[in-house]
Design brief:
- The protein is globular.
- It is built from seven helices and ten strands.
């Protein structure tokens, strides 16, 4: 079993104490996002976990405790964008986050850190030319610390649509995506960085860009057993179990579609118990906790 930590919230940045408590306990409880009354027990015991995939914008709180993972394999998806606090208000400066990535890579090796330039926004400020310039500078700064970079174009969902409109963030058409991909490839060519897209059906192989499997069984020495049916159609990920919860990330990124609103996430954060069996909310009294 591959455990995702987490697509739904930034556990390394916000809830690392909880994660390591659950790791020591050997189990986490995770509500079904579609039916929170149904809670499942997810084993975190070494015999049951083939690997952890961590997702974060700022995993600094985890760095000093990675030895607690023991022999369980893991790798990080590190989202590192050049946006300002108008778009990503809850995270440290870009310089500090780059420094954290470099420290993480130095500790675990570049093969266990994937840089995510994600999502690529388009508005009157964030033009393709500005993305090309900033991406190129970041690729140079990260040269040797990461082997690959995964990117995707902003998607509109019910939870983020109104905010994207208010911020003047536009959708991408196919010619625009191809031009942007070409620019990224050119900007990073000298660094040897391998570029891949996340859940994008567009074929960009002409620019040397492939399709990513962000959760990849092969990286844990496992045979791939088909795609994860719980993800988007173009997603190439292997099946995994996510131990996060929606509406718990307080970072406040305007493009986020994991929160109904930042107020709900702040309430969940304030009620969070680092020693609790799940990130937020009480476990139902009916005992509906099927093992997984």
């Amino acid at each position: 079993m591959i455990v995702s930590v987490s697509r739904r919230t930034d556990i390394p940045a916000l809830y690392s104490d909880w994660f390591f408590q659950r790791l020591a306990a050997g189990e986490a409880r995770v509500p079904n996002p579609m039916n929170p009354a149904q809670v499942r027990r997810v084993s975190l015991r070494p015999d049951d976990v083939d690997g952890f995939v961590f997702w974060s914008k700022h995993p600094a709180p985890m760095l000093s405790r990675l030895n607690a993972l023991g022999d369980i394999p893991f790798y990080f998806h590190y989202s590192l964008n050049p946006y300002g606090t108008d778009i990503e208000p809850g995270i440290p400066s870009l310089e500090r986050r780059i420094e954290t990535l470099l420290r993480l890579s130095d500790r675990v090796g570049p093969d266990r850190v994937t840089w995510r330039y994600d999502p690529i926004l388009l508005n009157p400020v964030w033009t393709p030319a500005l993305h090309e310039e900033r991406f190129g500078k970041m690729a140079t700064a990260l040269a040797g610390a990461v082997r690959s970079c995964v990117f995707s174009f902003v998607d509109r969902y019910r939870k983020n649509s109104a905010t994207l409109v208010r911020m003047g963030i536009q959708g991408w058409d196919e010619p625009g995506m191809r031009d942007m991909a070409r620019r990224l490839a050119e900007a990073s060519r000298a660094t040897g960085l391998q570029l891949e897209t996340c859940a994008e059906p567009l074929d960009l192989s002409a620019y040397g860009i492939g399709h990513a499997a962000c959760v990849d069984a092969a990286r844990f020495g496992l045979r791939r057993a088909g795609a994860d049916r719980n993800q988007r159609p173009a997603c190439g990920c292997s099946p995994s179990v996510d131990i996060g919860m929606y509406d718990t990330c307080t970072l406040g990124c305007v493009y986020c579609y994991a929160n109904a609103g930042r107020d709900a996430a702040l309430r969940a954060f304030r009620s969070h118990d680092p020693c609790g069996e799940q990130l937020s909310c009480r476990i139902p009294a009916d005992g509906s906790t099927p093992p997984i």
